[in-house]
Amino acid sequence: MNESTMAEATPHYRKEGFRNQRLCVVPRPQVESASGRAGTRQLLVTDAGYFPTADRHRRRRKNGTAETIVMLCVSGSGSVTVDDRTTLVTPGTCVVVPPFTPHDYSASDHDPWTIWWMHIRGADVADLVGGLLAAEGSLTRLRTVDRVAALFDELVTTLEGRMSPIHLLAASGIAWNLLTRITVDSVLPASGSPLERAMRYLESRVESTIPVPELAAIVGLSPSHLSALFRQATGSGPGAFHTALKMGRARTLLDTTSLPVADVAAAVGYSDPLYFSRHFRRIHGVNPSTYRAQHKG
Fold first, then answer.
1. If you compute the radius of gyration of the chain from its CA atoms, what whole number of angstroms results?
2. Is the pLDDT of residue 97 over 60?
3. Which band of pLDDT confidence, cut at 50, 70 and 90, is reported for residue 2?
4. What is the helix (H) or strand (E) element at residue 219, kind and residue range?
5. With helix as H, strand as E and coil as C, how does 159-208 read?
6. 32, 116, 142, 250: which could join 72 in a potential S-S bond, CB 3.0 to 4.6 Å?
7. Do β-strands 58-61 and 103-107 pair in parallel, antiparallel, or remain unpaired?
């Protein structure tokens, strides 16, 4: 193969320059200044954008970047390679690339992706993206993509308007919301899933006692599998989740009614008011009567 034939066979990749793209790059002197100010010191957006149908899009950085990169694919597909590990990126997936990490990402040749993206730095970034980086291949599958995309849109719109210190602070707040939304969305169960149905079942039966095997049978899972899903999503098992619902209902009744404590206990499934009071105190630090007398709001 001669040189001209090789040139024709090699695709001409692009870093940007896509039709209807949106691109915001904060001048580096402003980045350095904002990195020392309260608010933006904790989390600062240095670059953000939107690349629709990004044909031949590719970025390869042998030494990574100083910032953490967050990308959301809303349509099309592509791939990302981080530390020699390649992962397919499809609609509804979010990719996080750590700072100073070699990476290579590109849109599909046949179905180029549409992506929202941002580069962030700051003292709190590692904590905010830690859970996302723990995902397989640093890729997280989302359930409410439209909500996350709307936050990206708000972020880019903010930076397109003006990059004053107050606008950078506003962008930081949006980015914080965006990262927490991604984290929460990746953990909470999808509508109609066994875990979501189990949660709804417990919510509708706060006054009842539901053994884990019975709940697992209702949603078609083994008790151990259901318990593992609850721990992954909530940090505790089905029993603790149900207890939290009971205590939430009890607090509402104590705050909004004059029902005796015994009646509140019965309303949330405790036949023994003394046991309820001990349980309530263990969780809240005070007994139900003291809780009711506290000033709130």
1. 25
2. yes
3. very low
4. helix 212-219
5. HHHCCCHHHHHHHHHHHHHHHHHHHHHHHCCCCCCHHHHHHHHHHCCCCC
6. 116
7. antiparallel
